[in-house]
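Record format v2
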Amino acid sequence: MKPDFKPGTSQEKIKAIASFGAHVSSGKAKFFSDLGMDMVMGDRQGAFLADMDGQKKLFNLHCNGGVFNLGHRNPELIKLLKESLRTFDIGNHHLMSRVRAGLAEKIAASMPGDLDYTVFGVGGGEAVDLAIKVARAGSDRKKIISARGGYHGHTGLAVATGDRKYREPFGVSSAGFVQVPFGDIPALENAMAEDTAAVILETVPATLGIVVPPQNYLPAVRDLCSRKGALLILDEIQTGLGRTGKLWGFEHFHVVPDMVVLGKGLSGGLYPIAATVMRTPLEKVFHADPFIHISTFGGAELGCCIAKRVLEISADQEFLDKVNKLADAFALHIQTLQEKYADFLVGFRQLGLMMGLVFEGELSGPLMTKTAYDNDLLMIYANNDTTVCQMLPPLVMELDQVAWVMERLDRSIAAARQLCGDIGSR
Ligand SMILES: Cc1ncc(COP(=O)(O)O)c(C=O)c1O
C-alpha cells in the first residue's frame, strides 16, 4: 500500500522512503508513515535535526540516549576529525596504538580507584558482553544478575541480561542470567549465590523509565557484591560523560564499581566507539592470551582521537556547572507544568539532564512521543515503562532554549492529555 504523503513532499524523499522500505526495513517504513512521523533525517546541527525536505525541524530531546550530548555535528569535533584524518585511520587492532593508549590513560585518570584498564569496542552491547566475559573468566563463576526492565544492548550476552521480549524471538539462551527488581536489596541478596560472577546495573535505568535510585541503593549493592565476592558492573552508557551533572553518574552515590561500561556519547556523535573499563586485577584475564578477545574496529584510532576530546570537554567543571544550571531550569519549568496538568503529568524523575516525565495511562508515553513530534520535539518514551517519556536534551543546549522547549512541551502535553482522554487511556 502506498503511504499518503503531505503536499509538497519531494520526489527525493518519497524515493528514500520507498527504498528504505524495500531494502532496510519494511516494518519501520510502514510504522512511521502510519503515525505521520515519516521524517527522513536531513540537515542537523547542534540541538536540531531537520527532515530531508526541510519541512520539519525537531529539537532533539532524546539524543540517541547520549550520542549527541555535545550536539549534532559539533564543529570542534568535526575539525578534530578532519585533522586526525591527516595521520590516522582505523589503525590495527592487533598492534599497539599510541592514541588508544592515550585515551585509555585519560579514562583511567577520570575514574576512581584502580579502574585503570580499558578494552575498546564499537558499540555498547559489545562492551557489556566483554564485561560479562571478564567477570566470568576472572572468577570461574557463571551467574549474572541484572535488573528487571533494565537494558544493556541487543548483542549476545548483553541481550541475556534484558527483557525477554528482546531475546525470546531469537532463541537466545539466558542460562545463568537472573533478574531482580531494581532498587530491591532483599531480592538481590536472595538471588546472590556462590556462583554469582557479577551484578550489572545501569546507574539510572533509562529504558525502565529513568528510575533514579535512592541514595542508599547502589552503596548497598556495592556492599553486597563485596561481601559475596561478586563484581559490580555499572553501565554508564547513558549516564556517563556529564549527563547527570557529574562526569560519571555513579559519583552521585559514592560507589566505586569493578567495571564501568561506556558508549554512546564517547563517539561525539561522529565515530562509533565503546569501552569496558576494569579494575587492574581484572586485567589478568588477558595475561595468558592477550588476543583472547578481539574487535577489529574496537578502539579505531580516529574514534579514539574524538573520544579523548569528548572526555576532556565533558570533564570540565564549567561544562558540568552549565549542565546543572540547565537541569535547575528544566526542573522549575516542569514544576509549573505539573501544577497545570496535575491529573496527567504525575511525576518527574531527574538526575541532572537525565530526566523522565511520568504520565497517567499506559499509552501516555507513545502518545506523548507523537504529540511532541507534532510540536517539533523529538522525545521517546521508555520502552519498558510506557507511562514515561525520556527527556535527554543535548548538554550543550543554551539556557535560553529551555523556555522555547517548554512552550512546545506544554502544547504537547495538552494534546496528549486530550488524546488519552478521548481513547479512555486515562
Ligand atoms: C544503558 C544502555 N546500555 C547498553 C546499550 C547498548 O548500546 P549499543 O546500542 O551501542 O549496543 C544501550 C543502548 O541504548 C543503553 O542505553
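The chain has a mean pLDDT of 96.
Residues 65, 123-125, 128, 151-153, 202, 206, 235, 237-238, 263 surround pyridoxal-5'-phosphate (CB under 6 Å).
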